[in-house]
Write a structure and sequence with these properties.
Helix content is about 60%, strand content about 0%. By secondary structure, it is mainly α. The chain has one domain. The chain is extended.
Length: about 80
């Protein structure tokens, strides 16, 4: 039988689950979360030209926030679009 190796994040989730820190939620709350995740699904690809200095600043800001710059850009677009 093949042994599964968990990542650090997966081990943390497993430990948290075993310690009982996760709690059941109502079906309506679960549906709300599932719908929110579905709305955030990225299913389109774009290609744009931007000012090099703007891109450099965007990358620096993303690095300070500890996220990838594409994620930051996607979040900014989402905030403006909604």
């Amino acid at each position: 039988m093949r042994r599964t190796t968990l990542s650090r994040e997966e081990r943390t989730i497993e430990q948290t689950l075993l310690q009982g820190e996760y709690k059941n939620v109502s079906a309506s709350t679960f549906d709300e979360v599932a719908q929110a995740i579905a709305r955030r699904k990225k299913d389109a690809v774009i290609s744009i030209r931007v000012n090099a200095q703007d891109l450099r600043h965007l990358k620096q800001k993303a690095k300070r926030l500890g996220i990838k710059y594409q994620t930051l850009l996607s979040e900014l677009i989402h905030r403006v679009a909604v």
